[in-house]
Write a structure and sequence with these properties.
Layout lengths: L11 H13 L7 H15 L3 H6 L1 H12 L10 H4 L1 H27 L7 E4 L3 E4 L11 H27 L10 H14 L2
Amino acid sequence: MKRKKHWYDYLWLWTMLYFILGFFNILFAWLGMIDFLLPLGLAVFGGSKWFCNHLCGRGQLCMKLGRDLKCSRNKPTPAWMYSKWFRYGFLVFFLAMFGNMLFQTWLVGSGADSLREAVKLFWTFRVPWGWAYTAGTVPDWAAQFSFGFYSLMLTSLLIGLIVMALYKPRTWCTFCPMGTMTQGICKLRRGH
């Protein structure tokens, strides 16, 4: 028996829309803060991973592409990806990259550095992205945050799509930094 569809079963469209809008106007990257703050808020105030299980458009997109469109080899996810050392190691790395992005934003905001109209893929490869921003639209620090945050979101999407293609559709979810953080928050709330 098929389960009834809910409005949140279509949030994979939100993920697609986010990346399309950001491709044409980098300032839409700020919308990604919804996907950053909402899961944390639900974990802190609700004590659950409801976001991950129901609202995560990225997980839904991986299911849509991997399961429905057969873009996944559907191989078992390697055990090391489930391991605590990998999940928490990736979380620390992710937070370090997020911290670096905030530092770069602060440098631009303080006038110590100039705006870089580029997206970094895999935290390494600079891709010029100047067509997506008109200088002076917002303060340079706000634009720098947009470029950095879009880089972070795009890189994590690409990693998710790669592991989706190689393994099971939602393999990304096994080590997603947001999932690891919300799981940790839920454990703290339960006193574990």
